[in-house]
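Newbie here. two chains, one complex. Structure please?
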Amino acid sequence: MEGLEEKIFTIISNVGTAKGRYVAALNASKKGDISLANQLIKDGDKFLIEGHKIHSKLVQQEASGEGESISLLLIHAEDQFMSAETVKLLVKELIEVYGKINKLGIS
Amino acid sequence: MIHILLACASGMSTSMVVKNMEKAARDKGIEAKIWAVPEVEVENEKDHVDVILLGPQVSFLEDEVKTMVNNKIPVAVIDMMDYGKMNGEAVLNQALELIGGGK
């Protein structure tokens, strides 16, 4: 269980950091810095991918019958994951919208 | 007695870090009250704490929390690697450094 806990925490801290970058990207685009916003999305993706790697390994283990027990903590990690992905999706849309607004010169 | 508040999305994962921090504090002979709350609870707890540490999953709230406490209490995000490893001692050290060696 201890090894599993550490994996779960690594998922949480990676996808959480990704979410932080996405929110920072949103703030950057709101201030008009679209290229920084896009860079922050890319940064965030690196962390999301790290989280994804560990998560998919756990899923594969389960699929091959060597799964570990499912804990509330693991569900919580998946919840964080989903939240980061959702935030990314919306932030990417908003960056486009802010980009257009900035070009129009209205705020 | 040092009061360390940890905050994350739901307070669930961070409460496990708290356990490891409490152990580290005992080992160091430091009297500390350490507890974890969901980020929405920070507002209610902020008046009785010496330092606030945020889980990496709520890192984007750092500026908001700093404003909330009028920069009177140190606020920082827990190092991602330390969090991933649930390294209680490292997180405790981070808290102690932030409050300048303790009270």
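Moderator note: The mean pLDDT of chain B is 91. The first strand of chain B starts at residue 2 and ends at 8. Thread marked as resolved.
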